Amino acid sequence: MKLLEVQDVHTYYGDSHVLKGVNLEVETGAVVAVLGRNGMGKTTLMRTVMGLTPARRGRILYQGVDIAHLPTYKIARLGLGYVPQGRRLFVSLTTKENLIVAMRPGVKHGFTVEEALDRFPNLRKRLQNRASKLSGGEQQMVAIGRALMGSPNLVLLDEPTEGLSPLLVSQIAAFIREIREQGISVLIVEQSLPFAVSTADRAYIMSKGTVVHECRPSELQGDAELKHRYLGV
Fold first, then answer.
1. 6: β partners
2. How many Cα atoms occupy the beta-carbon half-sphere of 189 within 13 Å?
3. Could you tell me if 46 and 160 are in contact, meaning their C-beta atoms sit under 8 angstroms apart?
4. Residue-wise pLDDT tens digits, 22-58
5. Closest by alpha carbon to 153, among 66, 79, 83?
6. Chain segment 132-150, per-residue pLDDT in tens
7. Is 137 contained in some domain?
8. Residue 62: which H helix or E strand, with range?
9. Which runs of consecutive H residues, i.e. helices, occur in the chain?
10. What are phi and psi of 110, to 5 degrees?
11. How far from the centroid of its chain's Cα atoms is residue 96's Cα?
């Protein structure tokens, strides 16, 4: 069953045409990776899905409903969680406050702070620390935990492994596999092909604002020409 469908989406920054007819799908319970070099429109795609940079043309269907022109807070309340590139925490708030502020109103059986801590136990000793005092890895854990607090059906992760140690990268990969088993779908923007291979069911490659290739991530490993042309590896 298709949970998210991006159909011929065009997004602009002023007069700059960034997304040029993007199409992709995320099925229920699937992990999908969006790969590509910097500046190819991957982050803009995530922002467009979340309504932060609205599409000028095209449709974004979430559970069959077009959300392309909804405000971001309404999109989040429908069950989309977003972990932006750079984490974007409330740096003056504590770890616990950053988690609580994202709780989704009206959800009786949503994620709790305790459940978020179960997934990232290193944060237990940091609950009363301000976000500005956390390490980059700890901030990423809080950002992911914050997304869970909205009890999402779909989590969008923008460059979740950027600047992290191999140990933390493996923890995030384990987290993605865990929530997938719970039926939560994941859309990842990522530059690391090994990470995508270890976590994703499908991969889309973006170049110059459009999707140029779709396949299983493992298929990319043996395609040297494709990797060199679009991923720079």
1. 24, 60
2. 25
3. no
4. 999 999 999 999 999 888 999 999 999 999 999 999 9
5. 79
6. 888 888 888 888 888 888 7
7. no
8. strand 57-62
9. 42-49, 72-77, 95-100, 113-119, 136-148, 166-181, 193-199, 217-221, 224-226
10. -80, 175
11. 22
Report the candidate in 13, 115, 1 with the shortest Cα–Cα distance to residue 56: 13
Greatest extent of the chain over all pairs of C-alpha atoms, in Å:
50
Q: What is the predicted pLDDT for the residue at 106?
A: 62
Place of tokens 């899905």: 49
**Would you say residue 176 lies in a domain?**
no
Q: Which among 130, 178, 186, 113 is positioned nearest to 154, based on CA atoms?
A: 186
What is the spatial distance between Cα 112 and Cα 99, in angstroms, rounded to a whole number? 9
What range defines the domain where residue 60 resides?
A: 1-79+156-163+187-233
Phi and psi of 190, rounded to 5°? -150, 150
CATH number for 33 = 3.40.50.300
Does a structural domain hold residue 122? Answer: no
Question: Which pTM value belongs to this model?
Answer: 0.89
Residue 19, judged by CB atoms within 10 A of its CB (0-12, 13-18, 19+), counts as: buried
75's tokens: 């999109």
- Number of domains within the chain: 1
Is 87 among the domain residues? no
